[in-house]
Amino acid sequence: MGDSRTELLTDFLFRAPAAGGDRLNLRLAFVVYLVWMAVLTGVARLGFAGYEAGSTVGLVVWLLAGYVFYLSLCCTFLPAPTAWVVMLLASDYLAGLVGLENAVVARLLVVTTLGALGTAVANLNEYHVLTFLLRYRRAASLRRARFYQVAADWFGRSPFWVLMAFSLVPIPVDVIRWLAAACGYSRWRYFWAYFLGRWVRYALLATSTVFLALEPWQIAGIQIALVVLATMRFLPGVVRRLQRWRQQAALTASADVLEPAGQTT
Q1: How many CB atoms lie under 10 A from the CB of residue 170?
Q2: Domain assignment of residue 101, yes or no
Q3: 99 vs 95: CA distance, rounded Å
Q4: Domain carrying residue 71
Q5: Per the domain annotation, does 77 fall within a domain?
């Protein structure tokens, strides 16, 4: 019995991506995602109604439902920052508003687990969108490219741990999610890899917020710093594009000057 469980766990963590067609019912997947978002919206509305009636529990429900809703949207196609909302929900400032200053452990567990769930749902929906895009012939031709073959070989050695490790990094690495979808990696392994990775990441953020007693303005500063670091990865590409644009503009200007001089009457 123990050996079979070990084999199942080993297969789950180390199984390489499957090649070929995805066989996913994407229409059903998108409907489930929309239902999930609608349920969160309904829960948030109920919570807000309770808050307006003077219920502290209603305020908690509204905040948590809005928190999960926001994180369920954040992905490559909507690259909104996530660290600030995790830290704010875990902060003593917000806990003081709802009378949960002393429930530190419960607060950290709820914020971390719900946050990881929301992000994992967002990434699963992104996986479905990427799979949909890769069904087109032009996008699917990328699988035959040399760079894809090399990347897929590297990714296939330990895909679960690669995804989990990259989900821990505070700077987004979108290409690894594209690679997982292109390789046809199991969407449930993909989901759990991101859930566990983000759980650890959000636990670190939430715990740091509580034990450093961070204020909202400090949380905002940390998030701004992370956004700056994330945008710096695009800086070299922007500089190269500006240089090419200037060179093309200079060549065009030179051609405009030389053309009249070469004309004869």
Answers
A1: 14
A2: yes
A3: 6
A4: 2-254
A5: yes
pLDDT at position 133? 81
Token pair listed for 183: 């390789």
Q: Quote the radius of gyration of the chain (alpha carbons, Å).
A: 24
Q: Please state the φ and ψ torsions of residue 78, each to the nearest 5 degrees.
A: -140, 80
Length of the chain, please?
265
Rounded to an integer, what distance in angstroms lies between the CA atom of residue 60 and that of residue 232? 36
Q: What residues does 78 pair with on adjacent strands?
A: 75
Q: Are 127 and 190 within 8 A, CB to CB?
A: yes
Q: What are the contacts of 262-265 at 24+ separation with CB within 8 A?
A: none
Q: How many folded domains does the chain comprise?
A: 1
Question: Quick check: is 263 in a domain?
Answer: no
Residue 158 lies inside a defined structural domain of this protein:
yes
For residue 215, CA distances in Å to 10, 191, 208, 261 come to 43, 32, 12, 67
**Helix orientation angle between 83-90 and 56-71, rounded to the nearest 10 degrees:** 160
Q: What is the pTM of this model?
A: 0.77
Burial 2-31 (b: 16+ CB within 10 A, else e): eeeeeeeeeeeeeeebeeeebeeeeeebee
Identify the DSSP state of 78: B
Q: Across the 265 residues of the chain, what is the mean pLDDT of every consecutive 10-residue run?
A: 57 47 79 96 96 93 97 91 94 90 93 97 92 69 61 75 85 76 86 95 96 94 87 69 71 62 52
